[in-house]
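Backbones bend. Shown next:

***
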Amino acid sequence: MPRIISVFKRLLFVACAAAPILLVAQGVFPTPPRTPQRLFYIQRTGNTNTIVYDANTIDQGRAFNNKNPILVYWLRYDEQGQVMPLNYLQRTLAYGVEVTPSERPGEYEFHIVSYPKGKLRLLLDRYRQPRVEMPINGHEAWLERVFVKIEGKKVGIIPDVKYVELFGTDVQTGKPVYEKFIP
């Protein structure tokens, strides 16, 4: 009996080690690890590399860095899972953010540079956790992740975005909310 358990443990280990590879092959993307600073992330067709948006806080997490309240970077899952900065074009034309202080002290309004219509709000929630709030399908929600379906290029380096999916949590009820739209 102990030998059967040992063999079972080895098979389970091999299956768990291969699971991320199998999931990616089936079209499921890896989930970036949760951190206290994690705001949301964007994944898109083409590869599993993920754009991550983290709060840049000061004063032991009690306030945002005024000059740069949001850190944006890659998790390069297609390579070795390393953290990489956005390059100039990615930062200025695609995934970077434009941030302005809000009328509410300690909060910021921002949008992703490639989609200025998408207004987001950076704040600390009642538990002092950094959050991004935005309307998702008619609900005020904490944004958690975004998926962008891309098929080829429109012109040159401009991707042909077929749709965008937003995933979040309703601020009032705590229930999941979802919206799919064509930009």
The CA atoms of residues 28 and 170 lie 24 Å apart. DSSP finds two helices and 13 strands in the chain. The mean pLDDT is 86.
